[in-house]
Amino acid sequence: MSGGCTSCGNKGGCDARKHEMFAAVDAALARLYPTRRWDERDEAAGFDAGVPAAEGHLLAALAAARLNAAAVHRPGGPAETCDYVYVLCVGRTPCLAELREEAGAAAAAGALHEALADGPLSDVYLRVALSTVAPFAAVQEVTLTASADGAGSVVLIETPRAGVFAAPLLRRMQQLVALLGERGLRHLDFGDIAEAPAGYDAGSYPDEYGGAPTIANYFFYPQPPAAPTTTTLT
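and the corresponding structure tokens:
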């Protein structure tokens, strides 16, 4: 679904939606980056222009009901311009995303260690990135694995893919995209935002992250879309 367009009977409608999406992306880039340089975002232009945290929490609740699955809201990090909603597709409950958010509580920490008694665990999610600087959302397939390190800590590795590719996830992906539209959010397909925007200066990005920033980086987070992250919980 995120790998690009294919021929189908809806091509005309798809082309029209793509045109609207690219127009919205171009307008948002021009508003947020008037100098057309990665590290010169207009913070005033992005203030209160994206998806508020309250909407993210509500979206998680609606997604849980619509998809009959665990859904967890997670705030973005200090360098990120997005928050996240993780929708469990493959795994047990309470899922690793839930236990990660509650890891500071003794009961949750105990549950996580107990769950790992028989070995490492792995969950698969649809991860929705909700931009805090524009009314945009993007969905990725994410695997979250947990293992005990032998020293009393738990190592969580989050591995995203640049889109959604596993066939069993596509129906839920469609439901999720429909929900985003109902909430007034524009879904950006990763197949369309995985390239650097034409005519924009990468600025300091190559020195910090390597390569050139993609459109996704301008709206959601600075790290490469498929870069894994590791968290250690004690």
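(Above: one complete record from the training split.) The chain has one domain: 11-233.
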